[in-house]
Amino acid sequence: MFENAYDLDVALDVVSTLWALKCREYKNETDPQKKQKLLQEVDMMQFEKGALYRNGEVQKSVMDKAFRLYAPILKAHYAAV
User: Tens digits of per-residue pLDDT, 17-71?
Assistant: First the structure.
């Protein structure tokens, strides 16, 4: 399913873009509980970015998550802007 470099490149772009948006949201947040939750999300996305550079099931799982979960979030975000 994700056998070409284009799919990997798009998945990296999607995860990196959402990671940057979450970092900005974390920076602007003042509520400590929300800030902690955002920090966990940022850390997870950082791990996922690294996982995309490894071959195997973890890479495929993160690529699937990028296309099925993260891409629609970005699409909705940029549609609202």
Answer: 999 999 999 999 999 999 999 999 999 999 999 999 998 899 999 999 999 999 9
pTM above 0.85, yes or no: yes
Rounded distance between C-alpha atoms, residue 1 and residue 7, angstroms: 9
DSSP state of 55: -
Helix, strand, or coil (residue 75)? helix
Distance separating alpha carbons of residues 11 and 35, to the nearest angstrom? 26
H-type alpha helices, the chain: 5-28, 32-51, 57-65, 71-80
Q: Report CA torsion sign: 38, 63, 7, 68.
A: negative
Q: How far is CA 62 from CA 28, 32, 66, in A?
A: 27, 28, 6
